[in-house]
Design a protein that fits this description.
With about 1000 residues, the chain is α+β, with helices and mostly antiparallel strands. The protein contains 29 helices and 28 strands. The protein folds into five domains: about 160 residues, no CATH class; about 290 residues, no CATH class; about 170 residues, no CATH class; about 90 residues, no CATH class; about 170 residues, no CATH class. α6 packs across α18 and α21 runs antiparallel to α29. It holds the Pfam family DUF7286.
Length: about 1000
């Protein structure tokens, strides 16, 4: 069953009857004296009790209207003000008003029946303690559908009957009444509105969140326009903050209060349209009549059907393809550096063989012949002569074992015969004799000469076709000569097989391996370079796709993902066959593996460096009060997800007594950042007020270089800037002044250009072109001649155009095709390293002075042109200042640029001098007003009002950060008008 018709505000009469019955039933009486029941007394008391209810209803209605008109939002520091609950001063003040109004109305009740007079009363309030007790007697709560009625219960109403001066009945009742007063609903909505205005961006759907979403659209639209070349000098200005704040506040009025202030939407629409027009004209600010115009728009009835403008732009969900690029270049250069030593070493390892003899000996027994002593006794040895003879003979022997991984070149079997003859002369008396004893020992010796190919290589051991035979890739010698060389060095040079066998049978043979280098094909080096160049091209193009915003806020690690991708593709990139096509083929695979190892190692190092960079940027953001990268990521996600705001429905306004017929009035209707006269706003007081204070700080207005240390060590105060930035400043000054350039900046840019040029010359000199007789400096100077001015040449060096030109010139000068990829990689690396060096980074102070000069000249010209009505003159200002890039390149190490990030730290402070919520039901109106006025009430009936507190105005303060990410590029994104910290006049 529907209790009320929300659309028409009709309440069924049956419900009214039920409420009356329930209200009557709440008159709970207690008879303290418990005298004998008398009809006249009962009639008098019942008549008084019956009269109590309408009196209380009237008192509650009056008190509610008074409490709404002068709401106590902040308790006063007075004896009576301190009685109020500091967390709920409005409700306590309402209770106090209800009590005092009820007491006054009840005192006027006087019922007589049969000589008996009955009256109702409540204790008087004479002190703060009495007021505390009075408040405790009263309970208030929202009632009815949607809580738009007020239910009040008063404890301890005394009903006293008197006959001839004597009390004949004394009872207490605690009546409960429900009145159609929305006072609590209005207060709660006003409180909720103020709370939503003060809510931070991550604390629910409040002003902070809506401001974030609104400014996100503006910043991305203007930021991408600037990146695309539009004359945008100030991406986020306080005019955008002002309009977005008002649009958000009006939306909250509708969602939280249920209505919006008349004229508010018209004012916001006018301001929005005016701001959009200003943006299109490229103007940098607003004139002093802004507040008058926007308030005039609020008072007009229509605005040609326009609605509040919102800005959309930029591909906020776009992905960034991150490739190995410069990492692949650096790995290639490191492998080829020092005239190809690293490459030669890789080849040497694969053309190397460790050769050694393997020996095994086994005794074949000992034979003895002859006598050692003559027969008989008493012989005395006179002399002994021992002779030993050795001879080596071929003999079949068991082969010596050769370990796995060793290739046997030759085997030999020998028997070493050791014959020892002992001749002894003996004497006995005059008799002499000679004995001869022969001992023959035979030892079997097994010899093997073996080699182990590429002992220092970590390639998987797999077969090599024809490893010791000529042929295979390049039809090279492979290791064909190694067995012969091994025989010469380990057998021939040691006396031959018989000598080795003889030594093995006696003192042993030296078996330490000897390194033998195989002969390499003459074409091997060029062949390896060409193969490596092809692999380098493939690796350089290896990429991963990551969301640009995730990269910019360091939520993803592109280097780690690239390393993982290359690990997954490693087998395919190495391209190792089941069997190597000769030693050259094995060397090719070894070089490929060495190159990939270097690429992956550098990516891992970049990943580790990224963590250090992230920590440094986190700390810098925290020092600025912006928060952390995680918070920036959350705010960026919030800006993208526009569904996160405005999803709630407006609160229902139906309830007991009919619809609220709610209306909202604010003064001002539109919060401007300029001062407004109080008389214009029709608020108390003299002078002016500034309704809105705004501050937006662009964190990265001065662009920084690509080196990681500028993020961690000099993020907000680097003493030097990139050559690209200096060149942009130089170009801006040249445009502004018609050709004049600061001598200091000219000198610094020329010196930086010379430093980078020198590194390019070194890069060309390391190639075959440099060894062919062609002068590398001639090649470089011929290539750079296309850029005649220092700033043009600096930009070409910074953006890579100069590198491409040098390569093309080198090719025209006869650079072999096999070395073009190498030269291109060398020059990319050389340029990146040179640009990161201090010698190529002009001092920031010199650049700032140049930009200040350009800005003064252009602004003076624009002001003069504006006086003549030439609005398009602003293009000159923004186009000139736009020559200088802005933003923070997201770059973990020198030479890598994933995207450009910028952050605007936005704070707003606002005050509605008056907020009025009005609800009319029939002829009754409840008006809730927050205007900052003092609230006083005669509590103790002494004729002088006591101050309870004040109706504090609705004010707010919130803060957010707006993040914009654009692709890597020369312009970047950010404010370049010289005003990094933009504060409105009313910002405190």
């Amino acid at each position: 069953m529907r209790l009320a018709d929300d659309r028409r505000g009709r309440v069924p009469f049956a419900l009214v009857a039920v409420l009356l019955l329930v209200g009557s039933a709440t008159l709970v009486a207690t008879d303290r004296s418990a005298p004998a029941r008398e009809p006249a007394v009962d009639r008098a008391v019942e008549a008084t009790a019956a009269a109590t209810r309408p009196a209380l209803e009237t008192a509650v209605s009056d008190a509610a209207r008074a409490a709404a008109a002068d709401p106590v939002v902040v308790p006063g520091d007075t004896p009576y003000g301190r009685v109020l609950d500091p967390d709920e001063p409005f409700r306590d003040a309402l209770r106090a008003r209800v009590y005092l109004a009820a007491r006054a109305d009840l005192e006027r009740l006087d019922e007589s029946r049969g000589g008996v007079r009955a009256r109702a009363s409540l204790p008087p309030v004479r002190s703060p303690a009495d007021l505390r007790e009075a408040i405790a007697r009263v309970s208030v709560e929202r009632a009815g559908p949607n809580g738009t009625a007020l239910r009040v219960r008063i404890e301890g109403v005394r009903l006293r009957a008197v006959r001839e001066g004597r009390t004949v009945a004394d009872r207490e009742v605690s009546p409960t009444v429900t009145v159609a007063s929305p006072v609590l609903a209005l207060h709660d909505r006003a409180t909720a509105y103020e709370r939503s205005l003060n809510a931070g961006p991550l604390a629910g759907d409040g002003l902070g969140r809506r401001l974030t979403v609104g400014l996100h659209g503006v910043a991305w639209a203007r930021g991408y326009a600037q990146y695309g070349g539009a004359p945008v000098a100030n991406v986020v200005a306080n005019r955008h903050v002002e309009v977005t704040t008002n649009v958000a506040a009006l939306g909250l009025q509708c969602d939280v209060l249920g209505a919006t202030t008349p004229g508010g939407e018209r004012a916001a629409a006018w301001a929005s349209a005016r701001t959009a027009t200003t943006d299109l004209l490229g103007a940098g600010g607003l004139d002093g009549r802004w507040s008058e115009r926007v308030l005039d728009a609020a008072e007009r009835e229509a605005l040609d059907g326009r609605t509040v403008a919102t800005a959309e732009g930029g591909n906020r969900d776009s992905n960034r393809v991150v490739a190995a690029n410069r990492t692949a270049d650096r790995a290639l250069v490191s492998l080829l550096d020092d005239d190809g030593v690293a490459l030669a070493e890789a080849a040497a390892r694969n053309y190397a063989v460790d050769a050694r003899p393997f020996v095994a000996t086994r005794s074949r027994g000992t034979e003895r012949t002859g006598r050692e002593r003559p027969p008989g006794g008493n012989w005395t040895r006179v002399a002994r002569d021992t002779t030993t003879e050795r001879r080596v003979v071929r003999a079949p022997v068991a082969p010596v074992a050769v370990p796995d991984g060793w290739r046997t070149f030759e085997r030999h079997g020998r028997e070493v015969v050791r014959e020892t003859t002992v001749t002894t002369r003996w004497r006995r008396d005059e008799e002499t004799t000679t004995t001869r004893r022969v001992e023959t020992r035979r030892t079997a010796v097994s010899l093997a000469l073996a080699g182990r190919h590429a002992p220092d290589s970590d390639l998987p051991r797999r077969g090599v076709d024809g490893v010791y035979d000529r042929g295979g890739a390049l039809d090279g010698p492979n290791l064909a000569g190694v067995p012969k060389t091994a025989h010469e060095r380990l057998v021939t040079d040691r006396g031959g097989v018989d000598a080795l066998a003889e030594r093995a049978a006696s003192e042993g043979v030296e078996t330490e391996p000897v390194r033998i280098a195989g002969e390499r094909p003459a074409a091997l080096d060029g062949w390896l370079r060409r193969d490596l160049a092809g692999l380098h091209d493939r690796v350089r193009e290896a990429s991963v796709t990551v969301p640009r915003t995730e990269v910019a806020t360091y939520e993803v690690d592109p280097a780690a993902r690239l390393a993982d991708r290359l690990r997954e593709r490693r087998a395919d990139l190495v391209d190792a066959p089941d069997r190597y096509d000769g030693v050259a083929d094995r060397t090719r695979v070894a070089v490929r593996r060495a190159y990939l190892d270097r690429v992956v190692a550098r990516l891992d190092a970049r990943s580790s460096e990224r963590e250090r960079t992230r920590d440094g940027l986190d700390g810098a953001l925290d020092d600025r009060g912006v928060g952390s990268l995680d918070r920036l990521h959350d705010l960026l996600a919030l800006g993208v997800d526009r569904s996160a705001v405005g999803a709630s429905e407006s609160p229902s306004t139906g309830g007991v007594g009919g619809p609220l017929a709610l209306s909202v009035e604010t003064a001002p209707t539109y919060l401007t950042v300029d001062a407004v006269d109080r008389e214009r706003l029709a608020v108390a007081g003299d002078g002016e007020v500034t309704p809105l204070g705004a501050r937006n700080t662009n964190l990265f207005t001065v662009p920084y270089g690509d080196a990681a240390d500028t993020v961690t060590d000099g993020l907000f105060g680097s003493e030097r800037v990139s050559l690209r930035t200096a060149a942009g400043a130089m170009r801006a000054e040249r445009r502004a002044t018609g050709g004049t350039v600061s001598p200091a900046l000219d000198r610094e840019v020329r010196a930086a250009n010379a430093h980078v040029r020198g590194r390019l010359v070194d890069g060309v000199a390391r190639t075959g072109l440099g060894r062919s007789g062609t002068r590398p400096v001639t090649v470089v100077d011929r290539a750079l001649a296309a850029w005649r001015t220092p700033d043009a040449r600096a930009l070409a060096l910074a953006n890579g155009s100069a590198t491409d030109a040098v390569v093309s010139t080198a090719v025209a000068a006869g650079l072999p095709p096999s070395e073009r990829a190498e030269l291109r990689a060398r020059l990319r690396v050389a340029t990146a390293d040179a640009l990161a060096a201090p010698d190529a980074r002009p001092p920031e102070a010199v650049v700032d002075d140049s930009m200040a000069t350009a800005r003064r000249v252009v602004e003076a010209g624009v002001e003069e042109a504006a006086e003549r009505g030439a609005d398009r003159a602003t293009d000159r200002l923004n186009g000139t200042l736009g020559a200088v890039p802005a933003g923070l390149p997201v770059a973990p190490v020198p030479g890598y640029w994933y995207a450009t990030l910028n952050v605007w730290d936005v704070e707003v402070q606002g005050t509605y001098e008056r907020v009025t919520l009005r609800s009319r039901r029939g002829s009754e109106a409840t008006v809730y007003t927050r205007d900052g006025g003092s609230v006083a009430l005669d509590v103790d009936s002494d004729g002088a009002p006591e101050r309870l507190g004040r109706a504090a105005p609705v004010d707010f303060e919130t803060r957010t950060a707006v993040v914009v990410v654009v692709p890597a590029g020369p312009r970047g994104v950010g404010d370049v008008d010289g005003n990094a910290d933009e504060r409105s006049p009313g910002y405190d």
